[in-house]
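User: My collaborator sent over this chain with a note saying "see what the structure looks like." That's all I know about it. Can you take a look?
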Amino acid sequence: MKNLNLFILLFSIAIATTCCAQPAFVQKVQAYTATKKIGRLPVNLEGMEVTPQPQTFTTVYVETKGARPTWLSATINNQLYNVVASGIKSPEFIGTNKISNQKVVIQSKPGNQLWQLELEPKNGKVAKAISSKDKIIIKGKNQNKHFEIKVKKVTELELPDAS
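Assistant: Without extra context I'll predict from the sequence alone. Here is the result:
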């Protein structure tokens, strides 16, 4: 009886860790959010400047090895997002950590691919500011198998000025 209980316990742990693990081809996941005022300052009918509404950007960088994945969608706190993916060369400066004030440079190991995933709300909704406690899940397909990546941490960035 003890052997059966031990087997059930070990089997349950194996299933739980397998279900929660990242896909094997995913080497590293880093998520960032930034808020920026975009464009020129609008004016009202009297010619007075109107403060533009800031836009929030959420970007996830995923380092992969092997076959190229297909990125399908993302959710942030159960709100559906489109994923706009592009392969990037590394290293790349992406901004400054708002808390530590350190420059953030993304880079992958030799032979791996680095993906920049821009998350855009579906149906033209305005992206909401997110925090490190928010749940981000990215869904995709790799070699005809569906996968999910659960983002564990989101870092807020100060974006570089556009030149």
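A starting point for your reply to your collaborator: The mean pLDDT is 79.
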